[in-house]
Amino acid sequence: MNNNENNPAKDPKVLIALDFAEREVALRFVKTLNPEACRLKVGKELFAITGPSFITEIIQLGFQVFLDLKYHDIPNTVAKAVQAAARLGVWMVNVHALGGRKMMEAAQAALQEFEKPPLLIAVTILTSMQQEDLAEIGLEGSPQDNVLRLAKLAQSSGLDGVVCSAHEVAAIRECIKEPFCLVTPGIRPEGSAVNDQKRIMTPRQAIDAGSSYLVVGRPITQSNIPITVLNQINQSLDN
Ligand code: C5P
User: Fold this and answer.
1) 0.85 exceeded by the pTM?
2) Distance CA 225, CA 194 (A)
């Protein structure tokens, strides 16, 4: 049964983070959603629990899926891993930009054999890392300097976009325009709980700043009225 309203014309901006620890709970939730109103993000926990068959199942239900496994390995291994994701039919897959140019180029090249390859995006700097954490692993400069440098590296390595904080979007957009896509977590609709997110933006603010897609988890998945929350977000983007 699908009861989502106001479908934002086949390019839904909201990527719902399916951060569930059980397959059945995740599937029951997914079956209440309309694939024209949202896309779905599956991360390491749910993927480790459910395996690729869950991805295939939700794709068969009509959803476009962002497989958020953040690959970071030698170029050959990452190339094979993104191909395996592409064979599952996912819409988006990601790697760590800190894996370097050769790794990102190998991943992008490996996707060329697919008729409809997934979008390949990179994580720049994890938003959990502060300047002292970067210094400890030998990265000089502020988190924002590193994010910008790695976003440019991802672009010049042929990737389709990066994951970043909504607060970094404006600075990235100054040097990298669309169609390079910016995928932003840390999104909180007006009035919803902040949880453990540090620097948040509303869906509308993030899109106005230049985000391409919004990752939204708990404000929807932990709500008593998830469809209403999703519809309200989509409405706020339409207005
Ligand atoms: O529940 P919430 O909306 O905070 O979920 C955000 C999702 O985005 C989670 O799956 C989280 O792992 C992911 N994420 C994040 N911050 C990042 C990168 C990914 O919150 N910097």
Assistant:
1) yes
2) 17
Catalytic site positions: 70
**pLDDT of 6 over the 60 cut:** no
- Banded model confidence at residue 181, pLDDT cuts 50, 70, 90: very high
How many Å apart are CA 180 and CA 176, to the nearest integer?
7
Give the residue whose CA is nearest to atom 21 of ligand 1: 127
14, 234, 116, 62: CA torsion to nearest 10:
90
H-type alpha helices, 42-125: 44-50, 52-60, 75-88, 101-110
pLDDT for the residue 4: 42
Domains of the chain, CATH where assigned = 8-238 (3.20.20.70)
CA 4, CA 10: separation in Å to the nearest integer? Answer: 13
Measured from the CA of 41, which atom of ligand 1 is nearest?
Answer: 10
User: How would you label 180-196 residue by residue, b for 16+ Cβ within 10 Å and e otherwise?
Assistant: bbbbbbbbbbeebeeee
Q: Residues near ligand 1 with C-beta < 6 Å?
A: 17, 19, 43, 127, 163, 185-186, 195, 197, 215-218
Residue with the nearest Cα to atom 19 of ligand 1? Answer: 185
pLDDT tens sequence across 84-119: 999 999 999 999 999 999 999 999 999 999 999 999
**Separation of 184 CA from ligand 1 center, angstroms?**
9
Q: Ligand 1: distance of its center to the CA of 185 in Å?
A: 5
Give the number of the atom of ligand 1 that is nearest the alpha carbon of residue 17. Answer: 10
Q: Which residues contact 46 (CB under 8 A, 6 or more apart)?
A: 18, 19, 20, 21, 23, 26, 54
Distance 197 CA to ligand 1 centre (A): 8
